[in-house]
Amino acid sequence: MGKHIATVAGGTLASTREAHRACEGCQTSCQSACKTSCTVGNQVCPQEEEKKPRA
Amino acid sequence: MVLLHRFQMDGRRLVLDVASGALHVVDETAWFLLDRMEEGLAVADAVREARAAGFPGAGAREAAAEIEDLAGRGQLWSPDPAGPDYMPPVRPLRALCLHLAHDCNLRCAYCFAGQGRYRGSRSLMSFEVGKQAIDYLLAASGSYNQVEIDFFGGEPLLNFAVLRRLVRYGRERETVTGKRINFTVTTNGVLLDETTGAFLDGERLGVVLSLDGRPEVHDAVRRTAAGAGSYALAAPRVSRFAVGRDNWNCYARGTYTRYNTDFCRDFEHLAGLGFAAVSLEPVVAGPAEPYALGEGDYPALAREYERLARLLAGGAYPGVRFFHFDLRLDDGPCLSRRVSGCGAGTEYLAVDPAGDLYPCHQFVGRAAFRMGNVAAGVARPELAERFRASHALAKAACARCWARYFCSGGCHANNLAATGDMREPGALYCLLVRKRIECGLFLRAQTASRRVAAG
After folding, report:
1. Distance (Å, whole) CA B208 – CA B184
2. Exposed/middle/buried for B262, CB within 10 Å: 0-12, 13-18, 19+?
3. Cα B316 from chain centre
4. Neighbours of B115 (CB within 10 A)
5. Residues on chain A touching B63 (C-beta within 8 angstroms)
6. Average pLDDT of chain B?
7. What 8-state DSSP symbol labels residue B296?
């Protein structure tokens, strides 16, 4: 956290170009990505979820 | 290609590093420097201009150092991870939308499905067709361990007996194949009673509940065959159902039109009914329809999204999500998902009551988009390839847009409806998506250090 810039999120997109190519966990189809939203940025990646420390 | 997106909201200065997804809140000094550096100035020159503009020299040098540090760490002006030649990987089928009923107990004015008929006659899917579809999905999904089946219509609960048999058949096949099937259903709620609700809960189906908001808003477009409003028929049932399952895997999904450009009030109404996840989407309609939205409506709609973001940021509705603001910056989807969106035509297909396959529910009934049948599978791989190739980075306008990794280039069917070209989103659509992404980023920024908030 700098004095002039606060980073809210560090950004992980570049690292996912190859890493998740074969992933099957995130939702697809109308209910998840179209019927409820055309936005895809609000889906959770299950692989990233797995990396989080357990409470 | 845009590498940074900078915008302000309520005194906050936000900077999105487009290619990495990093989000920063900056003070006035850093904002000034970024502005000059975006214009092409070297750091030293930008600092010099900052001093000339009245910023203290020490502060400008500190801010410049922070900017250079973030750039060095790939969080500012980071290079795009994919170019125009990028192609999402070929993936097996993993989701089917089963049109259990090409019929509906409502006659909503804006229904894209022709009040349930989808350009054909009213019909219900048989158990045999549904069973074939499940078998086809499980076979075509290759090494995937989990697949999705969405029950859709028309109104799928008109065919509840078949829905129930298909879920039970799917559970049997899960045991045999070792794969998991995630079932969901989209319903207007009119037939949601103790029997149907208990089954959906017991089998852990995800549920999308169609309700537009306030009674007068809902009843203006969502009417029965006799022309009466359907709010009183649907709202108590869907509210009771959602609350009864503690909102587990359940969304209120509404559509807003020109009749309710103040849709924030509909969000508040739905939250008041007990929903914890609310989605409100703009209507897709031809310009001649009285309820259609036009570009002239954008200023009012943008203000409404901002109003909603402020409400949520202020804590007015704790525990209630507005689906379109809920952006995942740290644990969101990977690159290929972000540019390919819903997967229509490749990973996801729709099945009509006769068993014919289409790229998604919105294409059902259009002969040019018929892809095959559940008995024989996809007969037109060139059509699937066309959908796979129609990703965000292959769309000229989207490839240049800062929002490309959040919106995926828009819905294929909506693009086609708006512009006649699957690869060209409509102008209003883009404006609205960008606005709500900004609002989502603003909400996230509320958790950032207040030290830099005031600038």
Report:
1. 8
2. middle
3. 23
4. 16
5. 2-5
6. 92
7. G
Residue B75 burial (10 A CB sphere; 0-12, 13-18, 19+)? buried
Spatial separation of the C-alpha atoms in residues B156 and B161, rounded to whole Å:
10
Torsion of CA B415, B417, B420, B421, to 10 degrees: 20
CB B434 within 8 A of CB A41: no
Contact A42 B328 (CB under 8 A): yes
Identify the H or E element spanning A27. Answer: none
Residue B444 contacts A where some CB pair is shorter than 8 Å: yes
Query: Alpha helices, DSSP H only, in B73-156?
Result: 127-140
Long-range residue pairs from B2-8, CB within 8 A, at least 24 positions apart, any chain: B2/B400, B2/B401, B2/B402, B3/B77, B3/B78, B3/B79, B3/B80, B4/B34, B4/B38, B4/B76, B4/B77, B4/B402, B5/B402, B5/B403, B6/B31, B6/B34, B6/B35, B6/B38, B7/B438
The answer for A 7-26 residues in CB contact with B (under 8 A) is 7-14, 16-17, 19-26
B284: distance to nearest CA of chain A, Å?
A: 12
Question: In sequence order, which residues have a C-beta less than 8 Å from that of residue B32 and are 6 or more positions away?
Answer: B46, B49, B50, B53, B55
Q: How many CB pairs under 8 A join A and B?
A: 240
State the nearest Cα–Cα gap between A51 and chain B, in angstroms: 9
pTM over 0.95: no
B267: tokens are: 């969000």
Q: Does B253 touch chain A (CB under 8 A)?
A: yes
pLDDT digits (tens, 9 = 90+) for B183-211: 999 999 999 999 999 999 999 999 999 99
User: Angle at the Cα of B181 (from B90 to B202), degrees rounded to 5?
Assistant: 155
Lowest mean pLDDT among B109-123, B275-289, B439-453: B439-453
Burial of B83 (0-12, 13-18, 19+ CB in 10 A): exposed
Q: What is the complex's ipTM, to 2 decimals?
A: 0.88
Asked if the C-beta of A41 comes within 8 angstroms of chain B's C-beta atoms, the answer is: yes
Q: Is the omega angle on the peptide bond into residue B227 within 30 degrees of 0, that is, cis?
A: no
Range A16-55 burial, b when 16+ CB lie within 10 A, else e: beeebeebbbbbbbbbbbbbbbbbbbbbbbbbbeeeeeee
How close A55 comes to chain B (CA, Å)? 17
- Residues from chain A that touch B406, judged by Cβ atoms under 8 A, are 39-41
Identify each DSSP E strand in B219-355 by its residue range. Answer: 250-256, 277-282, 321-322, 348-351
Cβ atoms of residues B244 and B250 within 8 Å: no
The per-residue pLDDT for range B322-342, each reduced to its tens digit, is 988 988 787 777 888 888 888
Measured between beta carbons, the chain B residues lying within 8 angstroms of A11 are: 17, 20-23, 74-75, 78, 329
